[in-house]
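Lab notebook page, bench 4
Experiment: in silico fold of construct C2
Operator: M.H.
Input chain length: 207 residues
Purpose: comparison with the prior construct
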Amino acid sequence: MAQRKNKGWQIRERLAQLAAEYMAETGSQDYQLAKNKALNQFGAIDSYDLPSNKEIQKALVNYQQIFKADSQPEQLKKLRQTALEAMRFFEKFSPRLVGSVLYGTADVNSAIYIHLFAETSEEVAVFLLDNNIPYDEEQKRFHIKGDDYQYFPAFGFLADEVPVHIVIFSLQGLHHAPLSSVDGKPMQRADIKAVSKLIEQQHSTLI
């Protein structure tokens, strides 16, 4: 039995490593897709040997520390600076940074994800048009609670050649974050002040 558990742990660890490598090299934030890619490489296994999203995120941090230590921190800083500029631009919509750029796992292949809060998504669309910013209309799916998933309007555009995705929530949504795909808890969100502080802290470590 102990041998079976040990083998299962080794399989989970290897799958987490493969999934993390896929996410690091593609910039994907889709954990299920990363698991599927890892399974395609590894082969069929028992479902209880699949790593959790939290295990994959840990493996992603380890992968970057080993293979991208010379480039990832600087790339992350640039992404955060671009995100901060975008957040200042959207300041009237109480922007909040989310995802890998906030967590610290973003790199050259990553996109920026920002939550905005408005009475309607049309209000944000008009703001983009008034500022001559071309965009693509999107929808993003979030886990709200229990088995409840909802789609929210979103817009995608480029800022300094970096893909930026803004998701529009109601004004009340500012106090009710959707659940994280990593640990099932409310998503971490950072406002302009918090992102500025992150950049300052990272700058001091890179000097």
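Observations: The radius of gyration is 18 Å. The beta strands are 96-98, 112-117, 136-145, 148-159, 162-169.
Next step: discuss at group meeting.
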